[in-house]
Amino acid sequence: MSRETRIRAAAGAMRAAMEAGHGTLDELAESLEDCCLLQSPETAAARAPRIVQPPAALAERHTVALDVDEESPAADLALRLRMSQPDVTHTDVRSATEVRITVRPQSADCLRWWLGRFEADPASRTYAEGAYTVRGHRGDVTVALTIVGDDVDTWLGARHGS
Question: On the chain, which terminus has fewer CB atoms closer than 10 Å, C or N?
């Protein structure tokens, strides 16, 4: 990935953070940290040439439970990820401290980044309806990370019954 593209990704992450009301250096730094295009050149290179269009059944969907404040830690995390991560297809904020995030990683490196981001143990995965789910966390937010995609079985070295 070119230097210019990486700078544009950083600028986009910063702009999204500022639009969401984040203005301190720590909050802006966290937004940059959340931009996986900036994490490693290998991940960026793996992502750049490949554009994956999700099927219509997986159209983006983002929800926040009616009794959850949109300023809550879980809603804030979901918003930051939606605005900075192209892998995110769904977010479902269930409570102020719990969110389900569905991702369609574009490479094995991206999958490892997602697992590491939420300190999720891939050995604890469950499989249902064509998707894997692992539990993790980011700060005080509990994350149910749902992973979908054609190559995920191979990347996880998984076998399951249909």
Answer: C
